[in-house]
C-alpha cells in the first residue's frame, strides 16, 4: 500500500448547529426538519484536517469523504471538496430515513468497502446527537483495529503503521497501529479555510451520489433502536437554595412573570456579602455536584 | 527708451546651452519613460471619466493647495516654493520666447512688472526653502526621514535661486542697468558689489551664469529620478483621483471565470493607478503621523508601504511577505487617516485591502484567529458565532415590530451584529428603539433574518464571504421593499450606503446620530431635562472621515445641554479606537494597544462621560477605561443612551 | 427482565466514579423491578477491599474476571472478554458509566452481539422487557426517548453526573470469580509511550476544570488564589483579555475569541464581567460558576450559578470548603 500512498476515507456528517434551537412538532413529537441548521459536524472537520495533513505529507495519497446524508445537505458537504478532499461520496435513499447509528455505520462501511482504503478517520461523535458510536461500529464491521478519541494522527515508523496520540485523564498515550485501521479524532487543529479558487472549483466538482442499489443493497440495514419521541429538554433536577432569602415573594413572582428564561437564570445568582452566605452557596455547589472534586492519585480512565 | 535687457549679455557660445538642454531633456524623458513603463505593468483602471469634475477638483488641490495648507507651516512652505518656482519657470519661458523665437516679450511695461515679480518669486522660494531646511534639519519634524536626495533637491533649488540673484546683481553692477532698480534684490546685491572692479564682476558673472544654467537644467533632468517627480505625478494624481464614495472599497468581480487571480499577489496585480500613487508620494509623512497602527508601534507605516512599493516597482514576484511585511498588511484599521491626510491623494486602504484579498482568496493565509470568525459568519451570519436565532433576543419585551409581521415601516432599523449580540451594545439598541418610539416613527427590524452587513469580511479581504452576505441581505431587504434604513453602527451604515450599490442595492441609509439630530431639531423628539456636565466625543472613522458626518453628533450633544470637550485629534483628525478593518476580531500582539492610547486622549479632557456613536468604539473605549482603572469615575456611552436619558427625563446623568 | 449487569471499571484501589453511578442506578432499578443485579469487574489481582466496597452499593452479586489481558487500558481485550461473558450469561441489560473505555467498548460490543446501544442516557424508564431510555439531543434544545427494537441484550451507557451514588449498607451479596476460559483476539494497537500530565502545566483546551480570572481580581497577587483553587479542583488557570493586558497572566492563558476556545466540564469565572469576546471562548463549558461584584454583569446570564461578591472574600472560603470536602470524600472511599 505504500507505493500508492495512503488511501484515506473520512466519515463526515452534516449535523444541526446546536447554537440554534430546534423546533419540535408537538403532534408528531419529532423534530421539524425545517428548523435544522446544517453545518459539518465539527469533530469530523478536525478529522478531515488530519486527513489532509497526512495526504500532504505522504506522496500519492488521497482523501475520500464518505457521508450518509440527504441531498439538502450537499451545499454544506461541498466544503469538504473546497478544502481539498479528492472525492466526495454521498449516500442517501428514502428507505434509510429512520436509520439508527448502527445502520448508518453499516452503510458507511459498505461505501468504504467499495474502494481501496488504508485508513478511515472520523470525528469521535456527532455534535448534535452525541452518540459516539458510528466510528467504532464501522471499524468492527470492516474488521479494522481502531483507536478512538485521538488528538493527532501521524505517519508511523514504517508505511504499514500509523502513529496516534490520545489523551486519557492524567496522561497522554503515544500509540501505534497497523494499517488498515480506523481512528476517531477528538481534538486537533481546526479545518483549514478554503482558498476562493478551490471553492469555485468545488462547486463544479460532481458529488458522487449513491443509493442503496449502488452499494449492492436492496433494503436498508435493520435499525436496532427507534426514537419514540422528541421532547423539549428535560433539565436535570436541581434544587434552589436560600429561597426568597434576598427577595420578597411578590418581587420574585413579578420577575419570573416578566422575564421568562432570563428570570430563571437570575434565580441562580446569589448575593454573598458575608462568609455564611458564601458557605451556603458552596454547600449547594457541592450538593448539586456542579464541582466534582478530583479523586486524588490516578483514577485511571 | 524701451525698457529691456540684453538676454545673453556677457555670454559667448550660448549655443552650448541648447546642447545642455537636450541632455537635460533626454535625462528627463528617459526617467519619465522608465517610470511610465513600470506604471503600465499595472492592471487597467478607468480614471479618466467625468473630466471636468476631475479638473475642477484638481485645480483646487494643486493651485489652491487645499489639502497641503491643512498643516499651516509646511503648507505655507510648499505654497511659497510652489508659486515661486512656477513664477520663475514662467519667467524663464519668457526669456526663452524672446531669445529663441524672437518674440519681444521682455520689453516695456511688462518687462518692468516682470522684474520685481520674479525677484519676489525668488525671495518667496528662498523663504520656503529656509522653512524646509529648518523643518528638515533643525527641527527634525515628525514624519520626515532625511535621505540624501532631500538634501540634493533643496541644495539644487537653493543654488538656482541664489545663483540667479547673484547673476542678476553682477549684471546690474557691471552694466549699470538703468532699469536695475526694478529688481529690488538684484539692485541691492549690485550695490553691495559696487566696490569690486568691473573686470572681476564680468568674470564672476560668466561663471555664475553658467552655474545657474547648469543647475537649472540639472534640476530638470533630476526630476524623474527623485521625489521631484511629484511635480508631474502629484497634479496628475489629483486628476486621477477616485470619484467613488470615500468609504467604499472597490468592488471585485468574483463571478468572472476568466479571472484566475484575485486581489494583489504580485506587482502586476496592482492597477496602474496604484503604481502611479507610489510615484506621487513625496514622503511628507502626514499619513504616518496620523496612522493609529504606526503610532501604536505596529509594523505598518502607510508611508513606508507606498515607498517600498516605489522602490520595488521593477521587481517580480510576491508582494506580501517580500515587499510588504505580512503583519503590516493585517495591522491596518482602515480608519482612513492616511488617505484623509495625504496631500496628493494616495489611496492606501484599497491597496491594503487588495493585498488582504490576495492573502485570503488565493493563499488562505491570514491570522489564525480569523478562521473561526469567518466560519462563524458563514454558519450563523455573525462573527460572534452565536445562534442566528438569538439575533432578535435584545428586543424581547420591548415591543419592537418585526418587518415580516406588520405593514411596511417608514424606517427599517438595522440593528447590526454588535447591537444584536453584544450585551453592552444591546442596551444601545434598546435605547434606539425607545427613541424611535418616542419620536413616533414607524419602524421595524428584520429580526432573525438580518445577517451581518459584511463590513468586517470585506475589509479583511474575504470578498467571497462579503458578497454572499450582500446577496442574502439584499434579497431580504428587496423582498420587503425596504428603501430607508437607520442604523447605529457606522460600519453597517457605510457598507449599506456606499458598498451595497455596487451589487445593485438602492438604499437610503441614515446614521442614528443624523436621525436623532433631525428629530431634535424638528421637535419630534423633546428633551425633558437637560443633562449638564461635560462629555467628550469620539468621532467614529466610518461616519466621520469616510462619510463626513461631524456635526450631527455635536448638534445632539449641544441639544442635550452638555458641554463638549474635544479630544486631541477630533473631526477628520480623530484617532481610531483600533477596531476597524476587522481588527475587532484580531489580537494585538505587537506594540501598544490602540484603544488604550485613545482612551488616554479621552481621559485628558477630564470629562465624566465618553460618548461614542459606534458599537466598536464603545467596546474599545470601555475596555480602555477598565484597563486604566477609571471605570468607576468615567462612563462610556453611546449618544443614543444619553438622548434617551434626557428624553425620558431621568435627570442628571453625572 | 431477569438480570441487570453493570460494568465496573477499577484502577488501583479506586472505583471509577461513573461506574459507581451506573451501579447505583442498576441497584435502584433492580430493587424496584425485583431483578438480579450484578456488578462485573475485570482486572488482574483486584484488591479485596474494592470487591467489598462494590458490595456496599447493593448488587446481588459481584462477578470478577481475573485476567492479565484486561489489567491495563485495552479496549480490545475488554470487548473480547465482555462478548464471551455476555454471550454465555445472557443478562437483559448491561449498564456502563460514561468513560474513555466504555465509549469504545460499548459500540463494539453492541456490533458484535447484534444488540442495541444507547449512550449518554439520563433517565431509564422500565418496561416489560427492558428500558425506555431518555437522553439529550440537540443539546440543550431537546430530549429524545429511545426504545430498543430487538429482543435480548440492551446496552446502555449513562451520562456522567446524572445518577446519585448511595453507599448505604449492609447488603448481602456474593462474590463470584469467572471460571469460563476466555480467548482474546490479537490486536495491533499498541501503547508505546505514556506521558504523565501535570495539571498545572495542562493546556487550557485539555483541562476538565478551568479557573479563570479577570479584571475583578484587582491585582496580580490575587491570582495566587486562582492557582490554589485550580490545584484543589485539579484544573488549570485561565484569564480574560483584560487580565492578560494587565500582565497578570501570560497570553497563552487567555480565554476568548482571539485566545483559546475552551469547553471544560467546569469553568469558574472570577471577576470576569463576561464581555462577548470572552464568552465566545468559554460558553460551551458544561457548568459555569461566576463570581462578580456586579449583579448585572453579563457573565451571570450564562452562568449555571452566580455568586455576587468579591472574589477576595469568596475564593478563600471556596478553597477551604472544597479542600475539606475533597479530603472527606477521600476518607469515605477508604473507610467505606
Descriptive notes:
The complex is a heterotrimer of chains A (301), B (654) and C (336). Chain A is built from eight helices and 15 strands. Helices cover 29% and strands 25% of the residues of chain A. Chain A has a nine-stranded mixed β-sheet with strand order 11-10-9-12-8-1-6-7-13, sandwiched between helices. A two-stranded antiparallel ribbon of chain A has the order 2-5. A two-stranded antiparallel ribbon of chain A has the order 3-4. By secondary structure, chain A is of the alpha/beta class. In chain A, 45% of the residues are buried. Chain A has two domains: 209 residues, Rossmann fold (3-Layer(aba) Sandwich), CATH 3.40.50; 68 residues, no CATH class. The C terminus of chain A is likely disordered. With 654 residues, chain B is mostly helical. Chain B folds into four domains: 223 residues, Transmembrane di-heme cytochromes, Chain C (Fumarate Reductase Cytochrome B subunit, Up-down Bundle), CATH 1.20.950; 97 residues, Fumarate Reductase Iron-sulfur Protein, Chain B, domain 2, CATH 1.10.1060; 139 residues, Rossmann fold (3-Layer(aba) Sandwich); 129 residues, Rossmann fold (3-Layer(aba) Sandwich). Chain B has 26 helices and eight strands. In chain B, the strands form two sheets. In chain B, strands 2-1-3-4 form a four-stranded parallel β-sheet, sandwiched between helices. A four-stranded parallel β-sheet of chain B has the order 6-5-7-8, with helices on both faces. In chain B, helix 9 packs across helix 12. The radius of gyration of chain B is 30 Å and the shape is elongated. In chain C, helix 3 packs across helix 4 and helix 5 runs parallel beside helix 9. By secondary structure, chain C is of the alpha/beta class. Chains in contact: A-B, A-C, B-C.
Amino acid at each position: 500500500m505504500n507505493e500508492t500512498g495512503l488511501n484515506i476515507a473520512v466519515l463526515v456528517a452534516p449535523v444541526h448547529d446546536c447554537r440554534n434551537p430546534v423546533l419540535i412538532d408537538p403532534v408528531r413529537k419529532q423534530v421539524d426538519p425545517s428548523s435544522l441548521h446544517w453545518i459539518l459536524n465539527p469533530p469530523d472537520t478536525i478529522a478531515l484536517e488530519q486527513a489532509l495533513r497526512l495526504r500532504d505529507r505522504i506522496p500519492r495519497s488521497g482523501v475520500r469523504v464518505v457521508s450518509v446524508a440527504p441531498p439538502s445537505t450537499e451545499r454544506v458537504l461541498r466544503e469538504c471538496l473546497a478544502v481539498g478532499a479528492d472525492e466526495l461520496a454521498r449516500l442517501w435513499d428514502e428507505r434509510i430515513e429512520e436509520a439508527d447509528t448502527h445502520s448508518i455505520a453499516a452503510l458507511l462501511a459498505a461505501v468504504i468497502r467499495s474502494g481501496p482504503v488504508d485508513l478511515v478517520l472520523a470525528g469521535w461523535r456527532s455534535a448534535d446527537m452525541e452518540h459516539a458510536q458510528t466510528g467504532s461500529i464501522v471499524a468492527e464491521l470492516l474488521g479494522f483495529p481502531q483507536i478512538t478519541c485521538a488528538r493527532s494522527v501521524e505517519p508511523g515508523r514504517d508505511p504499514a503503521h500509523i502513529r496516534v496520540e490520545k489523551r486519557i485523564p492524567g496522561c497522554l498515550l503515544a500509540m501505534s497501529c497497523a494499517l488498515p485501521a480506523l481512528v476517531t479524532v477528538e481534538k486537533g487543529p481546526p479545518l483549514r479555510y478554503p482558498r476562493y479558487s478551490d471553492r469555485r472549483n468545488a462547486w463544479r466538482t460532481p458529488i458522487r451520489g449513491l443509493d442503496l442499489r449502488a452499494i449492492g443493497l436492496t433494503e436498508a440495514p435493520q435499525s436496532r433502536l427507534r426514537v419514540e419521541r422528541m421532547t423539549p429538554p428535560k433539565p436535570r433536577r436541581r434544587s434552589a437554595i436560600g429561597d426568597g432569602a434576598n427577595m420578597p415573594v411578590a418581587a420574585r413572582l413579578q420577575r419570573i412573570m416578566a422575564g421568562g428564561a432570563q428570570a430563571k437564570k437570575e434565580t441562580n445568582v446569589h448575593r454573598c456579602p458575608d462568609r455564611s452566605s458564601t458557605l451556603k452557596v458552596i454547600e449547594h455547589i457541592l450538593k448539586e455536584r456542579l464541582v466534582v472534586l478530583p479523586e486524588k492519585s490516578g483514577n485511571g480512565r | 527708451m524701451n525698457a529691456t535687457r540684453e538676454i545673453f549679455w556677457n555670454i559667448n557660445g550660448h549655443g552650448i546651452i541648447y546642447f545642455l538642454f537636450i541632455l537635460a531633456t533626454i535625462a528627463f524623458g528617459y526617467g519619465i519613460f522608465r517610470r511610465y513603463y513600470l506604471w503600465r505593468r499595472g492592471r487597467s483602471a478607468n480614471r479618466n471619466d467625468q473630466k471636468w469634475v476631475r479638473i475642477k477638483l484638481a485645480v483646487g488641490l494643486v493651485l489652491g493647495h487645499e489639502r497641503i495648507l491643512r498643516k499651516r507651516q509646511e503648507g505655507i512652505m510648499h505654497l511659497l516654493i510652489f508659486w515661486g518656482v512656477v513664477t520663475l519657470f514662467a519667467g524663464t519661458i519668457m526669456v526663452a520666447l524672446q531669445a529663441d523665437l524672437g518674440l519681444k516679450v521682455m520689453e516695456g511695461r511688462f518687462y518692468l512688472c516682470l522684474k520685481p515679480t520674479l525677484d519676489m518669486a525668488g525671495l518667496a522660494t528662498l523663504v520656503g526653502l529656509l522653512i524646509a531646511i529648518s523643518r528638515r534639519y533643525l527641527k527634525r519634524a515628525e514624519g520626515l526621514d532625511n535621505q540624501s536626495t532631500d538634501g540634493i533637491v533643496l541644495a539644487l533649488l537653493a543654488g538656482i535661486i541664489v545663483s540667479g540673484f547673484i547673476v542678476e546683481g553682477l549684471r546690474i553692477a557691471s552694466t549699470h542697468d538703468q532699469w536695475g532698480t526694478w529688481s529690488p534684490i538684484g539692485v541691492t546685491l549690485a550695490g553691495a558689489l559696487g566696490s569690486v572692479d568691473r573686470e572681476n564682476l564680468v568674470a564672476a558673472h560668466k561663471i555664475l551664469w553658467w552655474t545657474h544654467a547648469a543647475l537649472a537644467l540639472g534640476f530638470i533632468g533630476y526630476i524623474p529620478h527623485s521625489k521631484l517627480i511629484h511635480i508631474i505625478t502629484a497634479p496628475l494624481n489629483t486628476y486621477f483621483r477616485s470619484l467613488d464614495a470615500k468609504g467604499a472599497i472597490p468592488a471585485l468581480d468574483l463571478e468572472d471565470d476568466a479571472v484566475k487571480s484575485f486581489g494583489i499577489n504580485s506587482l502586476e496585480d496592482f492597477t496602474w493607478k496604484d503604481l502611479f500613487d507610489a510615484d506621487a508620494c513625496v514622503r511628507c509623512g502626514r499619513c504616518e503621523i496620523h496612522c493609529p497602527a504606526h503610532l501604536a508601534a505596529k509594523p505598518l507605516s502607510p508611508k513606508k508601504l507606498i515607498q517600498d512599493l516605489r522602490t520595488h516597482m521593477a521587481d517580480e514576484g510576491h508582494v506580501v511577505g517580500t515587499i510588504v511585511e505580512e503583519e503590516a498588511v493585517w495591522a491596518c484599521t482602515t480608519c482612513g487617516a492616511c488617505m484623509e491626510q495625504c496631500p496628493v491623494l494616495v489611496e492606501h486602504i484599497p491597496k491594503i485591502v487588495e493585498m488582504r484579498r490576495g492573502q485570503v482568496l488565493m493563499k488562505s493565509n491570514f491570522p489564525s484567529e480569523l478562521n473561526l470568525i469567518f466560519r462563524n459568519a458563514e454558519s450563523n451570519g455573525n462573527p460572534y458565532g452565536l445562534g442566528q436565532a438569538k439575533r432578535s433576543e435584545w428586543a424581547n419585551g420591548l415591543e419592537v415590530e418585526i418587518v415580516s409581521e406588520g405593514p411596511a415601516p417608514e424606517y427599517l432599523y438595522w440593528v447590526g451584529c454588535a447591537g444584536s449580540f453584544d450585551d453592552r451594545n444591546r442596551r444601545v439598541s434598546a435605547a434606539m428603539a425607545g427613541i424611535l418610539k418616542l419620536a413616533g416613527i414607524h419602524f421595524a427590524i428584520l429580526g432573525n433574518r438580518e445577517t451581518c452587513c459584511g463590513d468586517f469580511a470585506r475589509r479583511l479581504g474575504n470578498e467571497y464571504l462579503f458578497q454572499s452576505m450582500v446577496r442574502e441581505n439584499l434579497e431580504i431587504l428587496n423582498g420587503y421593499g425596504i428603501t430607508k434604513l437607520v442604523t447605529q453602527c457606522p460600519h453597517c451604515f457605510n457598507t449599506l450606503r456606499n458598498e451595497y450599490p455596487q451589487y445593485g442595492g438602492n438604499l437610503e441609509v441614515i446614521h442614528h446620530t443624523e436621525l436623532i439630530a433631525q428629530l431634535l431639531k424638528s421637535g419630534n423628539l423633546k428633551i425633558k431635562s437637560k443633562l449638564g456636565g461635560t462629555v467628550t466625543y469620539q468621532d467614529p472613522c466610518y461616519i466621520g472621515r469616510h462619510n463626513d458626518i461631524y456635526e450631527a453628533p455635536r448638534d445632539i450633544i449641544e441639544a442635550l445641554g452638555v458641554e463638549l470637550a474635544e479630544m486631541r485629534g477630533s473631526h477628520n483628525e480623530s484617532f481610531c479606537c483600533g477596531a476597524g478593518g476587522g481588527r475587532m476580531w484580531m489580537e494585538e500582539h505587537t506594540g501598544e494597544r490602540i484603544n488604550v492610547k485613545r482612551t488616554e486622549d479621552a481621559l485628558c479632557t477630564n470629562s465624566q462621560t465618553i460618548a461614542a456613536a459606534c458599537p466598536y468604539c464603545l467596546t474599545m473605549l470601555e475596555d480602555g477605561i477598565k484597563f486604566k482603572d477609571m471605570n468607576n469615575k468615567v462612563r462610556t456611552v453611546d449618544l443614543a443612551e444619553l438622548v434617551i436619558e434626557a428624553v425620558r427625563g431621568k435627570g442628571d446623568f453625572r | 427482565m431477569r438480570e441487570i449487569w453493570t460494568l465496573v471499571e477499577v484502577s488501583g484501589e479506586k472505583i471509577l466514579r461513573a461506574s459507581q453511578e451506573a451501579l447505583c442506578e442498576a441497584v435502584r432499578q433492580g430493587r424496584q423491578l425485583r431483578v438480579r443485579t450484578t456488578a462485573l469487574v475485570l482486572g488482574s489481582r483486584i484488591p479485596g477491599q474494592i470487591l467489598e466496597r462494590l458490595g456496599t452499593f447493593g448488587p446481588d452479586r459481584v462477578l470478577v474476571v481475573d485476567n492479565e489481558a484486561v489489567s491495563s487500558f485495552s479496549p480490545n481485550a475488554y470487548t473480547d472478554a465482555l462478548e464471551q461473558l455476555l454471550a454465555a450469561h445472557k443478562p437483559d441489560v448491561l449498564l456502563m458509566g460514561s468513560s474513555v473505555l466504555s465509549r469504545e467498548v460499548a459500540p463494539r460490543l453492541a456490533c458484535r452481539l447484534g444488540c442495541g446501544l444507547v449512550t449518554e442516557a439520563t433517565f431509564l424508564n422500565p418496561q416489560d422487557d427492558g428500558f425506555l431510555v431518555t437522553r439529550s439531543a440537540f443539546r440543550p434544545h431537546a430530549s429524545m426517548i429511545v426504545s430498543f427494537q430487538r429482543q435480548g441484550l440492551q446496552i446502555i451507557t449513562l451520562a456522567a453526573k446524572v445518577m446519585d451514588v448511595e453507599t448505604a449498607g449492609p447488603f448481602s451479596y456474593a462474590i463470584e470469580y469467572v471460571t469460563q476460559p476466555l480467548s482474546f483476539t490479537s490486536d495491533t494497537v499498541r501503547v508505546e509511550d505514556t506521558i504523565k500530565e501535570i495539571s498545572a502545566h495542562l493546556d487550557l483546551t485539555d483541562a476538565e476544570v478551568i479557573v479563570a480570572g479577570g479584571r475583578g481580581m484587582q491585582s496580580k497577587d490575587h491570582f495566587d488564589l486562582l492557582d490554589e483553587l485550580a490545584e484543589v479542583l485539579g484544573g488549570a488557570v485561565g484569564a480574560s483579555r483584560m487580565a492578560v493586558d494587565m500582565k497578570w497572566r501570560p497570553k497563552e492563558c487567555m480565554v476568548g475569541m482571539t485566545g483559546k476556545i475552551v469547553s471544560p466540564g467546569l469553568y469558574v469565572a472570577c471577576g470576569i464581567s463576561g464581555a462577548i469576546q470572552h464568552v465566545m471562548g468559554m460558553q460551551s463549558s458544561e457548568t459555569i460558576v461566576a463570581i462578580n461584584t456586579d449583579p448585572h454583569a453579563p457573565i451571570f446570564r450564562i452562568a449555571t450559578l452566580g455568586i455576587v461578591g468579591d472574589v477576595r472574600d469568596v475564593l478563600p472560603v471556596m478553597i477551604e470548603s472544597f479542600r475539606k470536602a475533597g479530603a472527606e470524600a477521600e476518607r469515605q472511599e477508604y473507610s467505606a
